[in-house]
Amino acid sequence: MPPAVPLSPYLDFSRADWAARREDQPLSLTPGDIARVRGLGDRVDLREVEEVYLPLSRLLAFYVNATAGLHRVTTDFLGERPAKVPFVIGIAGSVAVGKSTTARVLRELLRRWPQTPRVDLITTDGFLRPNADLEARGLLQRKGFPESYDRRALLRFVADVKSGMPSVSAPVYSHLTYDIVPGAEIVIDQPDVLIVEGLNVLQPAVVRSDQRTRQVLSDYFDFSVYVDAPVDQLRTWYIERFLDLRETAFADPESYFHRYAALTDAEAEETAAGIWERINEPNLIKNVMPTKDRATLVLTKGEDHAVTNIRLRRL
Ligand SMILES: Nc1ncnc2c1ncn2[C@@H]1O[C@H](COP(=O)(O)OP(=O)(O)O)[C@@H](O)[C@H]1O
Ligand SMILES: CC(C)(COP(=O)(O)O)[C@@H](O)C(=O)NCCC(=O)O
After folding, report:
1. Which residues form a coiled coil (predicted)?
2. I need a labelling partner for 204 at 20 to 30 A (CA). Which of 24, 30, 196, 300 fits?
């Protein structure tokens, strides 16, 4: 018998190799659908959807079926009646990398597969502590760092949805007011798929003083995606988006950043670079980037938000 060839845990695809994995799956999104889900500064178009996200949705449809099969054998073994268990996908990556666009495109594609008509999406910013709470804890300059979230509530939320509980509610964050919206909630009611998008969704467990580890969010993920790009590129995207927001979101007198609406280009660039360097880049380097290898799939973007490489974990 020939010696077994050791398998690498990762498969690396060029964009062209990955695009071929679409096989003959027809594109179900129209240009109008894509324009609706595209985030500010993001360039996702029909070609990007066809070559990158359609093959990914095909792979995810296989995973959904296989996971349901695995669940069935377990319930058979236990002699239980099979319950509906949502398939949970985590999407991680830096501020300004375009996680929200990736999440929305995947939601639209997955919805069109026959076995997953109900796809819900939640962003972890709803679990940020309210500003007053952050201020009391000295964390107002640490928004997006792991400690700025109510991690217990976030974990409870995902565990409840995964366990098949009906009508599980989550708080809502507003980028406009830069705070949690008092009294607002989003209700998730037994979807086929739940997408959980946020900077820190792949954070590893910390070891407690009694040497046991806490549960983490990714314990409940069936699949995870890390959206990656070089740090210099992310900084540029963050600053460009800030300049665009000045003319759109910041122009609203309700916006927390309204005082930035009147800045000149040079002043706005300096302000954005300051926020990036003080908050978002240190968080990226210390907390977000180290979680990349924990993802099932890494999408690496080049200039213009185009995905250039795909890495799939197969072991
Ligand atoms: N200050 C802001 N005002 C209004 N919208 C914002 C602001 N900052 C970010 N956003 C929007 O919030 C969304 C999430 O942004 P972010 O957390 O950077 O993730 P990503 O770019 O990876 O999706 C994006 O659609 C972005 O355009
Ligand atoms: C709201 C965010 C923390 C992202 O949250 P996520 O949905 O990834 O949990 C981030 O977009 C942000 O606003 N960071 C703070 C930078 C600042 O203080 O302006």
Report:
1. none
2. 300
Neighbouring CB atoms inside 10 A of 147's CB total: 12
Q: Locate 9 and state its tokens.
A: 């845990």
CA of 96 to the centre of ligand 2 (A): 9
How high is the pLDDT of residue 31?
87
Q: How far is the CA of 122 from the centre of ligand 1 (A)?
A: 14
Domain ranges of the chain: 9-79+100-117, 119-191, 225-294
Ligand 1 contact, 44 CB (< 6 A): no
CA distance linking residue 119 with residue 194, whole number of Å:
6
Q: What is the pTM of this model?
A: 0.95
Nearest CA among 182, 160, 164 for reference residue 173: 182
Can you tell me the distance from the alpha carbon of 262 to that of 246, in angstroms, rounded to the nearest whole number? 8
C-beta of residue 168 within 8 angstroms of C-beta of residue 88: no
Residues in the chain: 315
Cα separation, 63 vs 132, whole angstroms? 42
Whether residue 245 has its Cβ less than 6 Å from ligand 1: yes
Closest residue to atom 21 of ligand 1, CA basis: 96
Q: Is 96 annotated as a binding residue?
A: yes
* ipTM above 0.95 for this complex: no
Please give the pLDDT value at position 42.
74
* pLDDT per residue as tens digits for the range 137-179: 999 999 999 999 999 999 999 999 999 999 999 999 999 999 9
